[in-house]
Amino acid sequence: MTIRENDSEMEGFLTDASNLSGGYAERVYQPETEREVQEILAQCSRDRIPVTISGAGTGLAGGRIPFGGVVLSMGRMNRVIEIDEERGHAIVEAGVILQDFQTEVDSRGFLYPPDPTERGGQLGGNFSTNASGARTFKYGPTRSWVAGAHIVRSNGEMIGLARGACRADGYSLRIPAERESIQLTVPHYKMPATSKHAAGYFAAPDMDGLDLFIGSEGTLGVVTQIGLRLIPKPERLFSGIVFFDDEEKMLSFVEEARDRSRANRQREGSDLFDARALELIDPNALDFIRETYPTIPDAVAGGAIWFEQETTERSEDQLISAWAELIEQHTSLVNDSWFGLTESDQERMRKFRHAVPSSAYEYIAKHRVRKFGTDMAIPDNRFREMYRFYKDSLASSGLANLTWGHIGNSHLHVNILPSSEEEIPKAKQLYDLFVTEALKLGGTVSAEHGIGKIKRQYLRQMFGDKGIEEMRRVKQTLDPAGILGVGTMIGESIQNSK
Ligand SMILES: Cc1cc2nc3c(=O)[nH]c(=O)nc-3n(C[C@H](O)[C@H](O)[C@H](O)COP(=O)(O)OP(=O)(O)OC[C@H]3O[C@@H](n4cnc5c(N)ncnc54)[C@H](O)[C@@H]3O)c2cc1C
Question: Whole-model pTM?
Answer without folding.
Answer: 0.94
